[in-house]
Amino acid sequence: MNAKRLLIVDDEAEFGEFVRRVAVDIGYEVMVTTNGLDFQKGFASFQPNKIILDMVIPDIDGNELLLWLLEQGYASDLIITTGFSPDYARDAKILAEFKGLPSVSILVKPVRLAQLRGALGA
């Protein structure tokens, strides 16, 4: 199993594919999901050490999904994305840090290649 595993949840399939291509190019194994249920199903089996979490997806609120992740014991890197108000992402970042996640960053869409690569640690 690859040491760099990225799990993405974003209802914009085009954005998920963009992130996947960039991440694979820098050595990640990647799983892309477009809804909360598929994300939750894939989480345990994929065992990611980095997650990209879109705050606004149709079936579950980003904060609810964040709290679910924390209940599962997730304690690795989190990148919060949003195409809506950056305040929403900042609030989620504060919540994640308050709950103990060590590394939380925010990307506001549209995301530039250099920003994404930097957030992924390239």
From TrEMBL:
Q: Where is the Response regulatory domain?
A: 5-122
Chain positions with 4-aspartylphosphate modification = D54
Q: Name one GO biological process term.
A: phosphorelay signal transduction system
The answer to whether keyword Phosphoprotein applies is: yes
Please provide an example of a Pfam family that matches this protein in its UniProt record. Answer: Response_reg
CDD domains for the chain: REC
Task: List UniProt keywords, sorted A-Z.
Answer: Phosphoprotein
Which SUPFAM superfamilies does this one have? CheY-like
Give the matching Gene3D superfamilies: 3.40.50.2300
Identification of the protein by name: Response regulatory domain-containing protein
Organism of provenance: Candidatus Competibacter denitrificans Run_A_D11
What taxonomic classification does the UniProt entry list for its organism? Bacteria, Pseudomonadati, Pseudomonadota, Gammaproteobacteria, Candidatus Competibacteraceae
